[in-house]
Specification:
globular, 4-stranded antiparallel β-sheet, Alpha-Beta Plaits, alpha+beta, 126 residues
Length: 126
């Protein structure tokens, strides 16, 4: 999991179902989009999983709505979006959320007992 700053920040949740088309092209484009996103001002990190059936969930984290908007308008990202609609996705949903509170946990011995909580969330570390 990527380290994240204290809230508030934004999460872009992208849930998708893939087609069977062009796995190699999709993988190359996904790698390139991650490379580009990491270069964008305001990008904080990304988490992504995909089931064997093809349903995927990608969450990217951003400092601001303006950073998200700029990423959405990036020319190479726009071209990948068009390719995704035309070839790689059967359907998808994109949601933008403001993260107001966040808590982290790790079961590793070195991290045990160090749960981080947002002091403004009203939740104490347990």
């Amino acid at each position: 999991m990527p380290p994240l700053p204290p809230p508030p920040y934004y999460a872009v949740i992208f849930v998708s179902e893939r087609t069977a088309a062009d796995d190699a092209g999709y993988a190359a484009a996904a790698e390139r989009m991650l490379e580009l996103a990491r270069q964008q001002p305001g990008f904080l990190g990304l988490e992504s999983v995909r089931s064997p059936a093809g349903t995927g969930v990608t969450i990217s984290y951003w400092q601001s709505r303006e950073a998200i908007r700029a990423w959405g308008e990036h020319a190479e990202h726009r071209a990948a979006q068009a390719e995704g609609r035309a070839r790689w996705y059967a359907q998808f949903r994109l949601q933008i959320c403001r993260v107001e509170a966040s808590r982290d946990f790790s079961s590793s011995l070195e991290d045990r007992g160090r749960m981080k909580a947002d002091p403004h969330s009203g939740d104490a570390a347990r």
